[in-house]
Structures are given as structure tokens and as C-alpha cells.
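Here is an idea for our session: we take a single protein and study its fold together. To get us started, please write out a protein record for me. Start from the sequence, derive the C-alpha cells from it, and show both lines together. Go ahead whenever you are ready, and we will take it from there:
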Amino acid sequence: MSSNRIRILLVVLFLIALGTLPFWASRYMVVIFLLMCLHTALASMWNLLAGYSGLISLGQQMFIGIGGYSLAVLSMYHGIPIFLSVLLGGVISLFLAVIISVPVFRMKGVYFAIGTWIIAEALGICFSNWGYVRYGMGLFIQPAYKLPISTIYYAALVICVGSVFITYLLLRSNLGLALMAIRDDDVASEAIGVNIFRCKFTCFLLSAFITGVTAGVLYLNTIFIQPFEAFGIGWTVKLLFIVIIGGLGTVVGPIVGSAVFVMLQQYLSEYVGFNLILLGIITILVIFFTPKGIVGTFQEKLGFEILPIRRQ
């Protein structure tokens, strides 16, 4: 059997298992895979920025907060259908990305990372002092109580599969080649005609939209949103851990990293206050001993990729 057929078979079997999960698995298992799907979508977008575009953002949580609060405000205060509110949260996140793109793209390297983080922190402070959203007390998203867990799971699954395959198709396009050229050497890529701002801008908008939509589904599951949690730096720590563990610059890496992270999160929930420290220690060990992550290391040793982005 050819390698392409093996890839297709593995992907189809994996999707069938995920698609039928609510029919044969326990509720706890459905929730676990729901969280894996959501973290995969979020990590795929961060990986698209950092692993392929060279845009290391410490403020991706700004879109998580905006997506979550858009869901809460639109569905509770204005009576908009809940899944339409989720999509509108992605659109509002996209508009935010448009507004901040001009100033943040003037920054490079660590300055870009710090700039995005400052914006996210500023938004957290603004929302915690905004009476319309009950200040820092947070909001209970009451319409989400009516949704069965299977509905939220399938929404998460659609977003997960969509984010992975959009990333895969984008990286196999001319835009993907341009992004990787910019990541490796922006001066040389600009010299050969690559429009650096347009490529980064497109990537940034796509990441913002999908992150905002994913955040909406995330808060359908958690039901409660609070500004310092939604806009907190903890989200960047989680995404950084997932991408590094799975494999920075690989399409499948966020999937594997999300599975590892969610399982560790369930175990480390007993050690409140030490979980981020333990995740940090694990991340450092992975950087030292397997710098390419789980997926990157296996791909290097086996010479086989499930979703290869290289074109013949």
C-alpha cells in the first residue's frame, strides 16, 4: 500500500472514531475529547503564527476574550441565536486584528510578542472595569445551559477539523510558501518579490477569526467567563506548551500536544498552584532532549508525515 493511501486511511479512521464518539463513549470521555478539539484549534492558529510565519504572539488570548465576551453579550443581552453569536465573535475578533495590525506589524521579534501581550492585558483591564459586563465578577452564559454536551462536542469537532485542514491547505499554497520564506529570512523574501505585510496580515486575520470562533465554543462548555481569566497570559502558556510538546512547525503537532496537555491537565488539577510550574518544567525538558517535539522527532526518525506540506 502506498504512503498516500496509508495517510488517507489513517485520517478517515480517525475522523470516523471522532464522529461517532458520543454514541459509544461516556460523557467524561466526550468532554475530554471536546477539550482536545478546542485546544487543537487554538494551538493550530498559534502554530500558524509562530511556527510558519515567524510571528511569536504572547497576546493570542485577546481574541479568546473577545470571542467569549461576544458570545455572552450577544446571546444574553441581545437575544441573538447562540451559534450565530459564536460566529459573530470570530468576526469581531477579526475586526480587532485589523485595527491593531498596523501598529503591531511595525514591531519585530520580541517587540511584536510584547506588543500583543500588552494589548491583551489592556483589554483585560478594560473589561474588568466595564459595568456593562459586570466588571471583574464575570458573566454566566445562561443560553448555554440548554445545549446538550453532544452538540457542543460536534461544534468543537467541526472547528478542530476545519482549523487543521485550513492550515494544511494554506501551507501547501503559494501563500504558505511565502509565509515560510518570511519566517526564514524576511529581507531575502522581500527582495524576491514577497509582499511581507500582506502575507502576515492574511495569516493574522485568519488566526484571529478562528481563535475567536473557537473561544465561543469553549465558553459554551465552561458557561462562565471572567476578564482576568479570558484575557490572561495563562492561555499563551498553554498554547506554547502544546505546540512545543507536539512539534513547532508541524501540522499534526498541535493535535498530539493538545492530547498530552488535556490529559496532564486532568491529572495536575489536584495540584493547584503548581500545575503551570510542572508544565514549564516539562516544556524545558522537551526543548533540551527533543527540540522538534513528539511529532517532529517521529517524522525525522521514520521519514513519514501524515499531513505533509511539501509539494512535489
User: Anything to note?
Assistant: The first strand starts at residue 139 and ends at 140. Residues 3-232 form one domain. Residues 196-222 form the longest helix (27 residues). The CA atoms of residues 191 and 258 lie 38 Å apart.
